[in-house]
Amino acid sequence: MNVLVVGGAGYVGGSLVDMLSQTGHSVRVYDALLYEESYRKPVDFVYGDVRDAARLLPHLRWADAVVWLAALVGDGACALNPEVTVDINQESVKWLAEVFDGRVVFMSTCSVYGAQDATLDETSSIGPLSAYAVTKLAAEKYLEGKNAIVFRLGTLFGVGDHYSRIRLDLVVNTLTVRAHREGHISIFGGDQFRPLLHVSDAAQAVLESLEVSNTGVFNLHRQNVRIIDLAYQVRNHFPDMAIERSDVAFEDSRNYRVSSDKAQEELRFKAERSIDQGIEEVKELLDASRIRDVDNPRYTNQAFLTTFNTHLHYAGGADR
């Protein structure tokens, strides 16, 4: 197939494009390079904003399938400019649903469930707590009845490829950086659950979804982990690390566990990469000084967009 990866220069896209390039598919990346300075992979590339319909439409006409990764991602990043968040995360997908009849693979988020104590499947009630989750849920609705598969991703971690920007604002990656640099981790609360998934397992699920006819919404995660337990798991890789725990309430009130049974049964989804593997991947980058400045805002969506807020007015983001 001709596969258009919209937002393909990002965190998920980096791993996915590598996988697609090893198949018989023809791959084209459409991305605004919001967080990047260049795109160097040897695949067809188009620089463009998802809000630029005239520029994007010819590439949709070329495509048999579209993987839509483009979004402003994360609660804090989306709160900076809610109007732009709606345009990029929601309205662009509404337009996609109106003009494209081929296969669509769309990245949503388990954040749509909000704060709940039960283990949640795709039929559970939703309770989005942020502009990020609200706009992703609205975009899901636009794709109902289409030849579309929607993945509600758990919190991603690990290293997906050798070119794209790594995100250091995701809990596994963040705790690994703190353990490496500071020798201790501070945990607020700690009883919050997060469903975790390696970035390359997310990409693998996308790749395989191009070959099946299933449609609808699917949760994707490897395991549900309490934040305090994750901190102890990180300490297994940094034996001298100290853990400081505070009962002070943290501003992020999300607490949820999910089931991916539907994806396992209907799509034969299986997460192959462990949390320990992801910790080691990030640790190896840090040990080898391959990240010169972990405090550079480029590695954190909210920090980068706060520092360079005017970028939001000119460029559509890529899902990273």
Keywords:
320 residues, 22% strand, 14 strands, globular, three-stranded mixed sheet, 36% helix, Rossmann fold, 11 helices, alpha/beta
Overall description:
With 320 residues, the chain is α/β, with parallel strands linked by helices. It has one domain: 3-Layer(aba) Sandwich (Rossmann fold), CATH 3.40.50.720. The chain contains 11 helices and 14 strands. It has helices at 11-21, 53-62, 75-79, 82-99, 131-142, 171-182, 199-209, 227-235, 261-266, 275-287, 301-307, and strands at residues 2-6, 26-31, 44-47, 65-68, 103-109, 115-120, 148-153, 155-157, 184-188, 193-198, 216-220, 223-226, 242-246, 255-258. The strands form 4 sheets. It has a 7-stranded parallel sheet with strand order 3-2-1-4-5-7-11, with helices on both faces. A 3-stranded mixed sheet has the order 8-10-12. Helix 1 (11-21) crosses helix 7 (199-209) and helix 6 packs across helix 10 (275-287). The longest helix is centred in the first third of the chain and has 18 residues, at 82-99. The relative contact order is 0.18. Residues 314-320 have low confidence and may be disordered.
Structure at a glance:
α1 links the parallel β1 and β2.
